[in-house]
Amino acid sequence: MTVDPKTYPRVGTQSFPETLPLADREVVLTFDDGPNPPTTSKILAALAKECVRATFFMIGQSAAAHPQLVKRMAAEGHTIAHHTFAHADLKKVSHDKAIDQIDRGIAADEMALNGKATTVPSTPFFRFPYFESTPALLDMLQSRRIAVFGADFWASDWNPMTPAQQLDLITGRVKAAGKGIILFHDTKGQTAAMLPDFLRYLRDNRYKVVHIVPPTAQSRPVSR
Q1: 180, 28 Cβ separation under 8 angstroms
Q2: Is a pLDDT exceeding 70 seen at residue 219?
Q3: CB 91 within 8 A of CB 134
Q4: Is-catalytic flag, 87?
Q5: List 66, 78, 83, 185, catalytic entry
Q6: Which ranges carry the NodB homology domain (predicted)?
């Protein structure tokens, strides 16, 4: 699915009135806070096995530390998006510091991905840490045609639980919602362990995993 920031500047019903125009039984997989080699590598393997693609909202300092993993993610067809430089709560810092966190994060991600530090992102998708935004920051991102992603529901994988408990939680939320943007964290071992079973659940129950891309990239929804 091509997501044009001009048409969809802010999506995800946990934060905004609108979300992506998904059909019933369509989900978008998103992962925050990586890359983290021990867990991200397992998540990439699980996604590859089921032939699905996801969107990774990266922390700039982690991308800078692991550029080869960033390149691998892109080479395997995943969408590289942005999540600030150091995961600061942008509602708790000054407007100028918040913009610096956004721009440094984009620049670090772009350097890791393409070898060039720029604050104009290849993929204009951004997610606020903790979903904490301000009207001024939302307006600034919209003026730069950067889409802000919330989520429609999440795996709550910041809470300690077993992979089996997490699988039960997220499959229950998928059943209840029927469709939507799902938030995971690719830094969590329990998520990496749970993901193969979750992807099999989606396949066996005839859900489609929709891959989101910016307007300049080739649009190719992927499902199993």
Answers
A1: yes
A2: no
A3: yes
A4: no
A5: 185
A6: 25-210
